Amino acid sequence: MPIASSLTITPTVPRIAATTHTSHHCHPTPLRFSPNFKSTPLRAYLPLTSRAPTRPRSAAGPVCLFTGIVEEMGTVKQLGTASHGGFDLKIAASTVLDGVNLGDSIAVNGTCLTVTEFDAKVSDFIVGLSPETLRKTSLSELEPGSPVNLERAVTPTSRMGGHFVQGHVDNTGVIVSKVPEGDSLWVKVRTEKSLLKYIVPKGFIAVDGTSLTVVDVFDDEGCFNFMLVAYTQQKVVIPLKNVGDKVNLEVDILGKYVERLLGSGFVSSYAKSS
After folding, report:
1. Where is the Lumazine-binding domain positioned along the sequence (predicted)?
2. Which of 69, 72, 115, 197 has its CA 20 to 30 A from that of 153?
3. At what angle do helices 253-264 and 266-273 cross, to 10 degrees?
4. What's the first-to-final CA gap in the chain, in angstroms?
5. Helix, strand, or coil here: 74?
6. What three-state secondary structure class fits 188?
7. How open is the CA angle 49-63-136, to the nearest 5 degrees?
8. What's the helix, strand, coil split of the chain in %, to 5?
């Protein structure tokens, strides 16, 4: 998808620059993409020097929750540096814009991001990306035209159709095989050993923001697999990816809590006291 050599986004109703959300420190100035911007993946903009690891979302920001049930697949329209010095991602969508407000959270391929601008008339929105988010997720691999999974944060009246997904990507994995069986699709993913310990057969995992059930874990290979039924294949981006492509992974938070409790000695101290 070609991108103009320069782009100025002029605020129109309801396009408004966000000024109240502290997580991304946005300013009420029109976004201007770099005059020399090309459709290069965002990883090209990553700084050469790394900083101390931090969560992609500020601890002071709102706490959101997702279910891993993808609402729609959006399409990347533009991405690159903005006039405020950060990285911006513009996505064409429709369903997730229903009732959207500035500062709302939308999961993009499982990454919880904040809406900094939106235009209901042309059906698109903009989210900001921090350098740490680009390092920790597969969003740096996106290009104009890339499809992305989208889900709005749940509300008190939402149905919990998947599992508790925070939108905090733990790490990325790499697709190592895709094997059809009937109208279903087996997908095997390799990830770090440090993350694999939280992945269990028949347990939950969010892959690019999609709530899935793990079928098997292959410790010797550092892999796990899952199966996509025909309906799911039509609704998420995973089948569109190739072997060797990255996916965002978020393990079930319950496993981390259990490990933390066991490591703290809480269980043994409780057993002694009882």
Report:
1. 65-163, 164-262
2. 197
3. 60
4. 65
5. strand
6. strand
7. 25
8. 15, 30, 50
Does pTM surpass 0.85?
Answer: no
Token pair of 84 as six digits: 């405020």
Contact 176, 245 (CB under 8 A): no
Which bin fits 22, alpha (ψ -120 to 50), beta or left (φ > 0)?
A: alpha
Give the span between the Cα atoms of 9 and 1, in whole angstroms: 18
- Residues 51, 131: contact at Cβ < 8 Å? yes
Residue 242 to residue 96: CA distance in whole angstroms: 26
Report the pLDDT averaged over residues 86-114. Answer: 95
| Alpha carbons 55 and 59: distance in angstroms, whole number | 8
Predicted local distance difference test score (pLDDT) of residue 85: 78
CB 83 within 8 A of CB 177: no
For the cut 60, the answer to whether the pLDDT of residue 34 exceeds it is no
C-alpha distances in angstroms, 124 versus 1, 32, 119, 121? Answer: 16, 16, 6, 8
DSSP state of 236: S
